[in-house]
Amino acid sequence: MRIAILSRNRKLYSTRRLVEACEERGHEVRVLDTLKCYMDIASRRPSVHYRGEELPPFDAVIPRIGASITFYGTAVVRQFEMMGTYSLNESVAISRSRDKLRSLQILARAGIGLPLTGFASSPDSTHDLIQLVNGAPLVVKLLEGTQGRGIVLAETDKAAESLIDAFRDLKANFLVQEFVKEAGGSDIRAFVIGDKVVAAMRRTAREGEFRSNLHRGGSATLARLTPEERSIALRSARKIGLNVAGVDLLRSNHGPLVMEVNSSPGLEGIEKATGKNIASLIVQFIEKNYKPHRTRTRGKG
The pTM is what? Predict the structure, then answer.
């Protein structure tokens, strides 16, 4: 197969591992800088161009789209889909996952457990918004934040009011969520490929920090999921529409809660914590499921 990987940096661990896995399984692979792709959209024969050349047909594309380039990145993925290229994660599903509010609404509609969450625009609603999540301590999250950036813990109602007012003054879109104290600064990343949870790790925040992201200095160890956690992770990925996803769970007193469904989960932490060759499992999934013109969500975006 001819496989393209959309990535801004071919030296990143996840990109390197995917290239190695493709080559080990006998595929021709090419890494494309997403922002350097450009598209011929209006012609009868849609195409993608790169560094002055029209790209030849690819059988499959693996999107590694960073949050900061979601709009352009999903446009490039859509163009490949128009050309009949099989996309590991489809453009509509990536867009859903990146919109925190939309993804939480999709999961809530499916009856999947979530932290208490509030969203409002008017400053008149600040007090009620805080009470919706049972008051402080609470977490304020920027909708466009990633890797733990744009997430702030407010210890008191007064601090929460000041923080919310500051975010509003900056014209920022944000969510307010309950702080799940019993999680103890830890969460679970369940790595989903197709209809299986292939690996799971427990991420623990460093001392003095409540965010467990590895980019924030957190540590990762092998995790054992309960049947309920496994089922919720699979349902969450399926409802968002992702074939490959990192589903982040909190263990609360009233069961597992989904924090986020990530469409470009990193491979370094999960491979090192579990010892599994996740990159190879991803390529094997493509081999089993690849078909030209197999974009299921066409017309629903």
Answer: 0.89
